[in-house]
Amino acid sequence: MGRIKLTTLSLALVAGLMASLPAVAQDVPASYGVWRNPKNSVHVEIRNCGAKTCGYVVWANEEAKADARKGGTDNLVGLQLLRDFTEQKNGVWKGKVFVPDLNMTFSGTAEFPNATTMKAKGCLLGNILCKSQTWRRVDVAAG
């Protein structure tokens, strides 16, 4: 009899936890996760960094690592590329982008038109001398 109560209690606990998961998942911004650049040479994990959002390199191919070393960055993997990003009222994220092969930081924006696409733009001064790229989500289950 004790075993049945324990099993019932365990099932109720698991069901209660599973029911609460969607509410937690909805609080996580759609931008969070792992994204790859157009060449698939760098993967960046976008996540919470205190009051702001940031992105760290979690994987890079050998060519990207060599380019970063030429620019003065010894360790590309683990490096914070996206800094101090905050979501604006229009849904665009704004912050700073560090470009390791240039060893420079630029102002940047990111837009997320859907769950698997990030439109990223970095500019030297305001909206002058800009470069745009389309990044793709890496951590999505294939459907």
Mind explaining what this structure looks like?
There is one protein chain. With 143 residues, the protein is α+β, with helices and mostly antiparallel strands. It has one domain (29-137): Lipocalin (Beta Barrel), CATH 2.40.128. It contains two helices and eight strands; from the N terminus they run H-E-E-E-H-E-E-E-E-E. It has an eight-stranded antiparallel β-barrel. Strand 1 and strand 2 form a beta hairpin. The longest helix is centred in the N-terminal third of the chain and has 25 residues, at 2-26. It is globular and about 40 Å long. The model is unreliable at 1-26 (pLDDT under 50).
SSE string, helices as H and strands as E: HEEEHEEEEE
**From the alpha-carbon coordinates, what is the Rg to the nearest angstrom?**
20 Å
Residue ranges: pLDDT <50 for 5 or more in a row?
1-26
Q: What is the name of the CATH class?
A: Mainly Beta
Number of strand segments = 8
Helical stretch tally: 2
Total domains:
1
* Main sheet record: 8 strands, antiparallel, barrel
Average pLDDT confidence is: 81
**Strand order across the biggest sheet?**
1-2-3-4-5-6-7-8
State the oligomer. single chain
Per the principal axes of the C-alpha atoms, what is the gross shape? Answer: globular
Gross CATH architecture: Beta Barrel
Structural class category: alpha+beta
Helical content (DSSP H or I, runs of 4+): 10-25%
Distance between the termini: 43 Å
What is the CATH topology assignment? Answer: Lipocalin
- Which band does the percent of strand residues land in? over 45%
Task: Summarize the model shown.
The protein has 143 residues and is an alpha+beta fold. It has helices at 2-26, 62-70, and strands spanning 33-36, 42-49, 52-60, 80-87, 93-99, 104-114, 117-125, 128-137. 24% of the residues lie in helices and 46% in strands.
